[in-house]
């Protein structure tokens, strides 16, 4: 038998022989399907982008946040905490504790760094950061994405209904998230012998200390931990253990010790037990413009929906019900009913409590993604990445429309008139161009901004700390704002030397004041929106 001729004998190099390669299909790089987002994923991304743009472009109010910045600026200048409301001499004798000093100081530093635009951006980042916390930390487990999106939407609506910019109440959402994070991640009270995790022991007291120096709503923190401790004890009793066995349980004792530690942490502030008095006083008689919950309002509807959702889940849920969850929800609901500032706390707690109870109630429609086939006869599916591309487009649009893109895409920041909701810029401009020691009577809606933006820091008759004024001063303010023939006598009683009138809401009063001008009072400045009347300087 003759041997087959070798290729080198025929002049062929095996290294250069590509006859067999032509029969092999060409290798095509294929992107993994894990990067293929669904329509629901696109909806989640679009929601967060829309929330970011909405909160950023919402103008800041002329009340509230500017008072807090003024307080923080005073702390920086005087290196001590104020003992009475800043630039509000008529309330100097009222009980006052600057319990928001940490938030006020932070606001003053942010304003010093970038002005109102920085305040607006910081407000947006805090709000959107809390929404991300709700979605990725509180919405744990196997709940469907659309249900997680509903929870985030309720949190966003709560923020929107109470939007005042980066106030101390808004800033308190940061320590709230810090407190709830280890509780939501570990949820040890749901375990048979689950004691608090080491991270809960570390983070919870730190969050409480920061919260106690940020806003009076800190009282919710130790109350929530105490609620878990009570719920754990109830679970032990319902399991058939005696009271002695329950009190001797390592699990019950651990949660009780954590609650006591959190209560002790609230005392790490400049006033000690005084912050407790401030918190209970604000709940009984709010002095910061908040109020008890009203069902016929946005936050009231949200609270009602959450209560109805828990009632439904308690009847239909297949998951076990834990006493800690029920007590958490009950305490948060009572707090929200007492004051609207606690509505966001209830939304966060309800998300953490209710979503695990939905396990098994909704079918999982999201099929597992099959790997991409590489058979030569199967065509690739390029449209499977359509929602991924749309999500990237939404993120790019959000970036392009935000102030963060200014360094990349160029552009100018918003003007002060657009960043703030209808500020009295003309009034402030005149006061800064004609500086002198002043005691100004102005509408409360303008007073905070005037006190903040006027360089010589004038004293104001009333600000958003209106409820701290004496009763007679409140009565005179209301009478003067509504207009009256005795305006000069009222201003003389308090030695007010500058009167600012909003002509759009006080048109009749403005006409009367201009007609009553005499040798003592002069018209200093007027526009189609406002006028300033001031005492003549003798000599």
From TrEMBL:
This is Uncharacterized protein. Residues 1-20 have a biased composition (Basic and acidic residues). Coiled coil: none annotated. The keyword NAD does not apply. It comes from Blastopirellula sediminis. The chain crosses the membrane at residues 39-58, 118-139, 146-163, 169-187, 194-212, 218-240, 252-273, 293-314, 326-353, 385-409. The lineage of its organism: Bacteria, Pseudomonadati, Planctomycetota, Planctomycetia, Pirellulales. Residues 1-21 are annotated as: Disordered. Keywords: Membrane, Transmembrane, Transmembrane helix.
């Amino acid at each position: 038998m003759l041997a087959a001729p070798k290729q080198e004998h025929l002049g062929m190099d095996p290294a250069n022989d590509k006859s067999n390669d032509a029969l092999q299909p060409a290798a095509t790089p294929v992107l993994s399907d894990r990067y293929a987002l669904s329509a629901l994923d696109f909806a989640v991304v679009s929601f967060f982008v829309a929330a970011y743009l909405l909160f950023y472009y919402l103008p800041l109010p002329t009340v509230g946040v500017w008072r807090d910045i003024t307080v923080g600026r005073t702390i920086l200048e005087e290196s001590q905490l104020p003992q009475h409301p800043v630039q509000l001499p008529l309330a100097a004798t009222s009980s006052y504790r600057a319990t928001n000093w940490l938030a006020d100081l932070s606001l003053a530093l942010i304003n010093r760094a970038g002005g109102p635009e920085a305040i607006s951006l910081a407000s947006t980042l805090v709000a959107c950061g809390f929404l991300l916390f709700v979605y990725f930390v509180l919405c744990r487990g196997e709940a469907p994405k659309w249900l997680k999106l509903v929870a985030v939407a309720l949190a966003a609506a709560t923020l929107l209904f109470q939007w005042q910019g980066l106030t101390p109440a808004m800033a308190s959402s940061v320590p709230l998230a810090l407190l709830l994070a280890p509780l939501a991640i570990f949820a040890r009270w749901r375990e048979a012998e689950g004691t608090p995790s080491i991270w809960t022991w570390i983070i919870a007291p730190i969050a409480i200390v920061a919260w106690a120096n940020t806003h009076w709503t800190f009282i919710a923190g130790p109350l929530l931990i105490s609620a878990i401790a009570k719920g754990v004890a109830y679970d032990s009793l319902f399991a058939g253990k005696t009271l002695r066995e329950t009190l001797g349980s390592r699990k019950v004792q651990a949660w009780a010790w954590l609650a006591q530690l959190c209560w002790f942490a609230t005392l790490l502030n400049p006033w000690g037990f005084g912050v407790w008095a401030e918190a209970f006083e604000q709940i009984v008689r709010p002095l910061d413009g908040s109020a008890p919950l009203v069902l016929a309002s946005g936050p009231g509807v949200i609270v009602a929906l959450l209560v109805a959702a828990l009632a439904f889940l308690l009847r239909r849920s297949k998951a076990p019900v834990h006493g800690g969850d029920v007590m958490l929800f009950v305490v948060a609901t009572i707090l929200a009913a007492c004051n609207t500032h606690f509505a966001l706390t209830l939304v966060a707690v309800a998300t953490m409590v209710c979503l695990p109870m939905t396990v098994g109630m909704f079918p999982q429609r999201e099929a597992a993604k099959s790997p991409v086939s590489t058979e030569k006869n199967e065509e690739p599916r390029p449209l499977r990445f359509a929602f991924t591309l749309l999500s990237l487009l939404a993120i790019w649009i959000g970036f392009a429309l935000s102030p963060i893109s200014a360094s990349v895409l160029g552009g100018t920041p918003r003007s002060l008139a657009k960043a703030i909701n209808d500020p009295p810029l003309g009034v402030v401009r005149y006061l800064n161009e004609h500086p002198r020691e002043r005691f100004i009577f102005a509408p409360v809606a303008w007073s905070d901004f005037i006190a903040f933006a006027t360089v010589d820091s004038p004293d104001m008759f009333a600000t958003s700390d209106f409820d701290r004024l004496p009763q007679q001063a409140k009565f005179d303010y209301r009478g003067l704002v509504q207009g009256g023939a005795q305006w000069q006598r009222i201003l003389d009683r308090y030695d007010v030397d500058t009167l600012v009138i909003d002509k759009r809401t006080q048109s009749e009063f403005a006409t009367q004041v201009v007609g009553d001008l005499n040798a003592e009072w002069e018209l200093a400045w007027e526009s189609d929106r406002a006028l300033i009347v001031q005492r003549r300087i003798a000599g």
